[in-house]
Design brief:
Strand content: 15-25%
CATH architecture of the largest domain: 3-Layer(aba) Sandwich
Helix content: 25-40%
Shape: globular
Number of strands: 10
Mean pLDDT: 93
Number of helices: 10
Order of helices and strands: HEEHEHEHEHHEEHHEEEHH
CATH superfamily of the largest domain: Glycerol-3-phosphate (1)-acyltransferase
Strand order of the largest sheet: 1-10-6-2-5-3-4
Radius of gyration: 18 Å
Length: 277
Amino acid sequence: MSTKKTDGEGDAADLSGGEVAKWDPKLTERVMGAIRPLTKLWHRSEVRGLDVFPAGGALVVSNHSGGMFAMDVPVFATGFYERFGFDRPIFTLTFDLVLSGPTGAFFRKTGFIKANHENADEALRSGGVVVVFPGGDYDAYRPSTARNTIDFDGRTGYVRAALNAGVPIVPLVGIGGQESQLYLTRGGELAKLMRLDKLFRAKIMPLSFGFPFGLSAVLPVNVPLPTKIVQQVLEPIDIVAQFGADPDVDEVDAHVRKVMQAALDELAAERRLPVIG
C-alpha cells in the first residue's frame, strides 16, 4: 500500500506526546495490508467522496453498523490510507476494554485511543483524523428494521469536541453493515431484567440471528455475511462559519443528523438487495 501523498492531503500530524504519540505508522500500514482482503473482497467495500476531505485535523462523525463485527473503521481506514497515505493518522475513540489486556498496546499503536474529551482534543489538535460513533453500541445493535436510520441516542458531545479543537465535522454514512446478521432487538429491557446495568454497566443485551448458530445473545458468535458495505464522505461542516461563535449544540447536532439521514436515504435507494448491494 503506497504512502505517497496526493492532492488534498494535509501536512504530517504532530505526534509529539500523550496518547497520540503511541501511533505507529509502519505497523498500521502492515495491519491495513492484512485486513484489505477482508474489506475489499469479503465486503466489497467502497469509500466515496474522499475528494472533499479537508486537510489537517478533522472529526469524522459516523453511524455505526454490524454489532460485534462492525466494519466501519476498517472500511474507512482502507479507503482513507489508500488515498492519503500514512502521514496523517486515523484515531478511533474506543472503550477502556479494548485498550486493556495483552492486546492493548497493539490497538494503541494502530490508532485506538480511550474515549474522553482530553484524548479527542489532543488528537484533533495534532492534525489527526478522529473517528467517533456518537450512537455507540446503541447504534451498532439497532434492529434490522431500523438499519437505515441515523440515531445517536441523544448524544451530542461530539459537537463540543469539534468546537473545542477548532476543527470541522466531517459526516460519514455507511450502509450494508447492518445486513451482516438479522438484528432483532437491542434488548434494553432484557439487560435490566438480568441486572447487566448493575453488574457490567451494560444497557443492552442484543439478540440477533445469523450463521451458523442461529439465535445469538452476543454469544454464540455468528459469522458476518459478506454484505457489500458502502460509505459516503459528506461535505465538511465548519461549525463557527455556519452557526456562529457560540452555537446551539442541539441545533448543530440536528443539522449533522439531517444531512447524514439524507445521504443514507440516497445510499439505501441505490441498494438493490440486502447483502448483495
